[in-house]
Amino acid sequence: MRLTGGEIVVEYLIRQGVPFICGIPGHGNVALLDAVVDRQDKIKMIQVMHEQSGVHLADAYYRVSGQPLAVTTSIGPGATNTVIGMAQAYVDSTAVLLITGSTHTYMRGHTVLQEIERVQWSNFPRILEPVVKRYWQLSRVDQVPYVMHRAFNQMLSGRPGPVLVDLPMDVAADAADVELPDPDEREPRGRLRPDASAIRRAAELLLKAKRPVILVGGGVITANAAEELQAVAELLGAAVATTWMGKGAFPEDHPLYCWHPGDTASTVGNAVCRSADVLLAVGCRFTDWVASSYRHGASFAIPPTKLIQIDIDPHEIGKNYPTTVGMLADAKAGLADLLAQLQDLCKPKGYKGTAYFKEIQRLNAEWDKALAKMQNSPTRPMTISRALKEIRAATPRDTIVVTGAGLPQGQVWQEFEVYRPRTHITSGGFSTMGFTVPGAIGAKLAAPKAPVLGIAGDGDFMQTMQEMAVVAQLDLPVLYIVLNNCGFRSIMNLQYNAFGEKRLIGVSFERKDGSPYSANFADCAKAFGLNARRIEDPEDVGLAVKKALASGRPSLVEIMTARAWPHTGVSKSGWWDVPIPTYLPNKRKDYEKGRAEEKL
Fold it and tell me: With contact defined as beta carbons under 8 Å apart, do 419 and 579 qualify?
């Protein structure tokens, strides 16, 4: 059939089941978008207000649904605006297809409008090179079918990630006789299974363990391996802890759940992980946040803890800790094979009567008690912990919560229970501010029947608050909750702890007279067309949230929260390597002690 480059792209997206292409039109991608006009029965365009937001929207959509979206931008600034979003997707291993407009092939290097060409003509893809699995720069229309099926292959095989197709303006508009590939004939199917001998060694180690722990990363959620995870944990009576990306893979009200290890994590997560005799790590990277900057004994003690590591990316196995058994495998296949081997070797254990299980319950109770002071605090403005407690009590079990960088992100991770995979969506590994607002749009589009909360601090919210226009235009019943503390309080806490209370800088939003400054976000939301209100009393939180969800409208609840230490604090139960200047000798001494215990 004879199709333009733009038509080929659109038809292949439809074959892949892609429901939306999002972005902003410009002269560099108008021919591509024109091909959508006659196919809107199969694929819709979602217009965002900033290209970064388009990528965040697609990122969150994939995390909730497992289906990648396409994002399109024009040449130049529009394309460059995607860098943060693509880096976020790359670090968190989420699939996004970015299609950028590019210079006409016959004008490359002549400094056409918005071309980057001083080192190499049409050189935009080099900007994204470190944060995509692969990129393609097309030259002819007949290349488009091949590139499209390779792009999906790269995005979705192995460790998922974003890819870039740089589409010249003339290639999008010109036509050729082509045959569209069948996705089923061009993409790998099935799962990468672990070596059988490694599975047997892992099973034998786990069955001998007295204090087994399973550390769960985002790979478990990507692989849809929650059922296998729970079965393995219950058979072994193993404690289960999750990373930032793994939160939700295991029900957080399950008696074997132990929250998270790391710096601003949980006391129970760190206690069980550092005392484990065997640690089974599945689909996680052992980042510094989770591993307390590799300070031995803070979150992990590997060795003497024996590490069994399952990961689909060989780059991650043994990277930060030596393994006793390392297995290259898909998380679902790896856990399924491990479960089968365990069942062959033993009968299910009655773990609830063991001393280890009783210790887990005690440690969890101590963690709950540690949180209770902030969660039940009557202070005004209220603590974020109190606000989150009221929000959780007012929301259904299947609620999806979306967060970007800041105190709300860390405290949702620490304190806000979730019970199902793909219901905690956060800018975890790259920790991007501005993720919440567009991310919640993507989550709601992916799960229209589920309640979706975008919980943001005021700093995070202001990065991309213009996307409220998109929520209003689409009439999406997303609920944004802005926890307003007039500043970048997570960094204030860091400065306070690291440098001292008299060395705070750049973290408070203030007028010249030193009084707190804040926009009225509820009024801003109303101006965008949202249902909104601002509240200050913790007793009003639950009712406001319930009313907003019941309204069926795009909504925002702004909650004024504490600005002063210690009411802005999160539990710091581990260690994070933040270098202290030598001109602060007392704090430097403590820092050097911790750093000396790091094992890299």
Answer: no
